[in-house]
Amino acid sequence: MKGIILAGGSGTRLHPTTLSVSKQILPVYNKPMIYYPLSVLMLAGIREILIISTPRDLDSFRGLLGDGSSLGIELSYAEQEKPNGLAEAFIIGADHIGGDSCALILGDNIFHGPVFSTLLQENAGDVDGCVLFGYPVNDPGRYGIAVLDAEERLVALDEKPERPRSNCAVTGLYFYDNDVVEIARGIEPSSRGELEITDVNRTYLENGNAKLVDLGRGFAWLDTGTHDALLQACHYVQTMEQRQGIRIACLEEVALRMGFIDADSCYRLGAALSSTDYGRYVMDIAQEFAPGVAE
Question: Which GO terms describe its molecular function (predicted)?
Answer without folding.
Answer: glucose-1-phosphate thymidylyltransferase activity; metal ion binding
